[in-house]
Structure formats: structure tokens, C-alpha cells
Amino acid sequence: MISFNGREIPETLDEIVSPEHTALIVHEMLNDWLSAGGYFHPVARPASITEMLGPMIALINSARENNVKVIYANYTQFADHRTLSDPDVLKLQEMRSIHGPGLPVVKGTWGNQVIDELRPQKGDIELEKYKVDAFVGTTLDLILRWNHIKTIAIMGVGAFPGILSTVSHAHNLGYYIVSPVDCIKGISQAALVEKAMEFIGKWSIVKQSSELINAWKSTN
Count of domains in the chain? Predict the structure, then answer.
């Protein structure tokens, strides 16, 4: 710990990710983004996502075992488009020119549900978000502060733009952020993911998921 103006500031990884003040955010692991038959992958799930599931499952299990709060941040849209801003509508037209008609992750549909391998359990928090930034228009900041959270670990898909914008916002709100690099991917465009990770690394502590698991175990 660092003593500063009467405050005790977490310094080491073990202190920063102490379970009593850490939450794990599972970001947009939804059927429409990831499952065979979903909006983006009608034929098969990408191999890169399959490879990531093992570390993600291990990290979620460790979080639950060590009383780290698990929060699912799920991008959601309404079928009548009322949750889309004017610029979002333009982006939708562009997306449809590539992927065809329809609207992904519509509230109440299979595509808006978390994939089977990572389904929320009793005690987890499910958060609907309508913008890529998980703080905009949601109660995420309130939930974290009410539960005395200082640190968020974030994993999932949407390194760009969702995880990047959420990490940036969290930093500006004063949270520590830990990004398990082996548990963060993009839905598409690998080059954008690589560039996003450069910026995510500026605002967060980039680690392997195994390092978080070991840090949580060390507190027992």
C-alpha cells in the first residue's frame, strides 16, 4: 500500500484485485456475436473465440469461488430501433450492406442471450447497455460504488470499440482496470483489436488470466 494524504492506495496486483473490492465484467459474450447461427457468424463460431473460452470459464469460476462480483454487460437493441441514435442508424445501414437485413442482439431474442458456456448464475448481475461504452446510460457506476468496488477486470469480445471505450471511461471515473489479454478478442477486424489493445494498455493493467486467478487464490 502507498500512504497518500491520509489514504491507503493499493499498489501491488494482489492489493489492486483484492476480491473485497473487485468486480469481473463479462463483456458482450452474446449468441448473435459469437454462436453458429448468430447474426455475425451464421455458419460457425470463429476458432479464436473457441480458444478463449477455456481461460474465460476458469476466470469466471475463480471469481465466483473468491466472492468477486461477476457483472455481465450485454449490448441490447430494441426491434423498433428506438434505442438507436441518428448516427447509429447510419452505422446500421452500413452493417446491413455487409451482413444482410435484420438487427442483431434484439432484446428478448436468442441472439441477445449470453452463450451457453458462460451463462450467468444466481448472484451474478446482468446489465443491459445501449451504447458500446458500458457506463453510458446504465447503472454500472452506481452498482460498482454501492458495492465498494475499486477495481474492474474486464474480458470478452468487442476490444474495439466496446471494451476500449469502457476502459477509458472507467479510468476517468477513478477505477483501477485489469485487462486479461488472453480473454479479450474482437468480433472481426484483427488489426483493430491489436490497435485497441495498445490503448487499453495505457489505461489498464494488462495481465494473463492466470495471474488474476493466482492473485485471488493468494488471498485465501
Answer: 1
In a domain, residue 96? The reply is: no
Q: Rounded to an integer, what distance in angstroms lies between the CA atom of residue 128 and that of residue 73?
A: 6
Q: HSE of 203 in the Cβ direction (CA atoms, 13 Å)?
A: 22
- The span from the CA of 149 to the CA of 16, in Å, is 11
Residue 20 domain flag = yes
Residue 109 placed within a domain: no
For cell 469466471, the residue is 60
Rg of the chain's alpha carbons, rounded to an integer? 17
Full residue range of the structural domain in which residue 16 is found: 2-76+114-218
CATH of the domain at 140: 3.40.50.850
pLDDT in tens, 71-129: 999 999 999 988 899 988 888 888 777 667 788 999 999 999 999 999 999 999 999 99
Report yes or no: 12 and 5 within 8 Å, Cβ to Cβ. no
Question: Across-strand partners of 154?
Answer: 25
Amino acid at 22: T
**What is the rounded CA–CA span in Å between residue 60 and residue 193?**
22
Question: Taking a C-beta distance cutoff of 8 angstroms, is the pair 24, 178 a contact?
Answer: no
**Alpha-carbon separation of residue 191 from 50, 60, 125 (angstroms):** 19, 27, 32
Q: Residue 153 and residue 181: Cα distance in Å, rounded?
A: 11
